[in-house]
Design brief:
The chain is about 25% helix and about 35% strand. The protein has 6 helices and 11 strands. Strand 1, helix 3 (about 55-60) and strand 2 (about 65-70) form a beta-alpha-beta unit.
Length: about 260
């Protein structure tokens, strides 16, 4: 059976080069956006594609009620274990494209880790926005973290990562590739990540293929309007309120308001 790196939450975040320091910086920026644009206190927050919800855990420790949604039972299980003793965070296993949960409305929502572009079909993004919109109060904010995408479309496989790292007692060799897609698909590439993980008593090989849609501020603006649920009110670059989009180094955030 082919394994996925998402079966190993503590390794997954290191493979994707996420650091605890970055999580704290992102949480601080989220709170700054809420203060700037919301005009009311944030008590209840929805975390989309939350994984083990590292952002949600930090917010819950500060007194915010957080509800996380993810399709992976393994990642949710890790989140529940890590947040044991926190009564302000809970999780639901749901597909992110379309979902309902038995919760009262939220003040804000967020989608972190630059993975929003894994939804590649217009209908999936629109149903996602409807699902989120139904759970937000009017005027509530939805913040979406998106990787900067530029350059020519991949026409051949391109190696992005080839490195090794140690995570606890495990040694991990990582190879990341962009695989080309047809020009008419609207998909920037298939991102393929393969890991060889050497534990103390066994070796596991994981392989994940993630389609990535070419996603720009104008795309999100149009989809927000098409949903009838949201208006895009801002786009911020590299956790800054002042840095222009044409100087974006790594990623940008879309800020949508529930209408």
């Amino acid at each position: 059976m082919e394994h996925s790196v998402y079966e190993f939450p503590h390794i997954f975040r290191r493979v994707h080069m996420e650091e605890p320091r970055e999580i704290a910086e992102e949480v601080r920026f989220l709170r700054r956006i809420w203060r700037k644009h919301l005009g009311r206190e944030v008590h209840r927050v929805l975390d989309l594609a939350c994984g083990n919800s590292p952002h949600g855990q930090q917010l819950a420790r500060r007194g915010t009620t957080v509800v996380g949604i993810d399709r992976s039972a393994t990642m949710i299980g890790a989140g529940r274990k890590e947040s044991a003793g926190l009564d302000r965070i809970r999780f639901y296993r749901r597909p992110i494209e379309r979902f309902r949960i038995p919760e009262r409305p939220f003040d804000a929502a967020f989608f972190m880790s630059e993975t929003f572009p894994v939804m590649t079909e217009n209908r999936d993004i629109l149903s996602h926005l409807h699902s989120v919109g139904r759970l937000l109060k009017r005027g509530g904010l939805y913040c979406i973290d998106i990787d900067r995408q530029d350059g020519m479309r991949a026409t051949r496989p391109i190696e992005l990562w080839n490195r090794s790292l140690r995570v606890g007692d495990a040694r991990v060799w990582v190879r990341g590739m962009h695989r080309p897609m047809p020009w008419h698909s609207g998909i920037y590439s298939n991102f393929e990540i393969t890991c060889r993980i050497q534990f103390s008593r066994r070796r596991v090989v994981t392989r994940d293929v993630v389609p990535i849609r070419y996603t720009l501020p104008c795309t999100i603006d149009l989809l927000a309007q098409a949903s009838g649920m949201f208006q895009m009110i801002a786009a911020y670059t590299d956790l800054s309120f002042t840095k222009p989009l044409d100087r974006c180094h790594r990623r940008w955030w879309a800020v949508l308001r529930r209408i």
